[in-house]
Amino acid sequence: MRISINTSKWYSGFWAALLFFTRLPFWRIYQPPKEAYQSVVEYWPLTGWLTAAVMAGIIYFGSMVLPFPIALILAWLARLLLTGALHEDGLVDFFDGVGGGGNNRQRILDIMKDSHMGTFGLLALIVYAGLLFSTLYMLDPFYAALAVLAADPFSKMIAAQVTQLLPYARTEEQSKAHNLYRRFTVGAGISLFAQGTLPMLPLVLTYLSIPQLSLRWDLLIFIPCLVMFALYMLMARRLRGYTGDCCGAVFLLVELSFYLTMSALVYTPV
To answer: In this structure, is residue 2 part of a structural domain?
Structure first.
């Protein structure tokens, strides 16, 4: 099998992903063509390298001069500013729709498109933030930083699979971005896998280099995948498809399951 890579499409898709998933003014450097936005999900984990590096840097270096909880809050705030709370907005809309729409597909989609925050969305955001801070706080700042470096791109790689397993739940004109993601090619799939797994190497090598430390890597990988599958089944049954809000929610919940699993594996009761 021959795998060819079109460098111009890769270049345009990468910049489109940076523009789509962050709020940084990359448009000053390059303006990708409209069709490049159909492939942004193929570079989603790569944008996670940026957000993860910023978060990890603030957690590790910030904890040297500030209390650890404050460093964690500042790290999350930095990601919110970098992404414009894109994924958190998806989490709120997703839970508002699923929680308030019952089994009525159209009602769920209508609620998700409503810009107002409902009770289910607010509760989901509060619980998510509480668990995020609690799980990272249970880790040493160094290991919390390594966990963030690994979890952000890895979880985006896992969440991206939803776009391949389900059809889009709306039409292109009804989507917020007026854009539909394309199907992955073999080359795109390999690239996505590399983007999502390479940032895990520092965490893996650190644990392997210290004989006293051990981690169930099978659980650390399997449980986030299981969470993604459960959310996929929920969307398939209630929505018969996915939306951009669904993608954001899946990413955050898969990432949170990574932190929950890691904190549970390393927690030692006093």
So the answer is: no
The answer to whether 100 and 111 have CB atoms below 8 angstroms apart is yes
Neighbours of 79 (CB within 10 A): 21
1 located within any domain? no
Distance CA 17, CA 47 (A): 7
In a domain, 5, yes or no: no
Domain count, the chain: 1
Domain span at 117:
11-267
Dihedral sign for Cα atoms in the order 64, 205, 157, 257: negative
Confidence of residue 243 (pLDDT cuts 50, 70, 90): very high
**Phi, psi at 242, each rounded to 5°:** -130, 165
* 3-class DSSP state of 71: helix
Residues in the chain: 270
Reported as a single tens digit per residue, the pLDDT across 116-161 is: 899 999 999 999 999 999 999 999 999 999 999 999 999 999 999 9
Name the average pLDDT for the chain. 89
Q: Does residue 95 contact residue 246 with C-beta atoms inside 8 Å?
A: no
User: How is 16-68 classified by DSSP, letter by letter?
Assistant: HHHHHH--S-GGGT----GGGGGGGGGGHHHHHHHHHHHHHHHHHHHHHHS-H
Give the contacts of 115 (CB within 8 A, at least 6 positions apart). Answer: none
Residue 57 included in any domain: yes
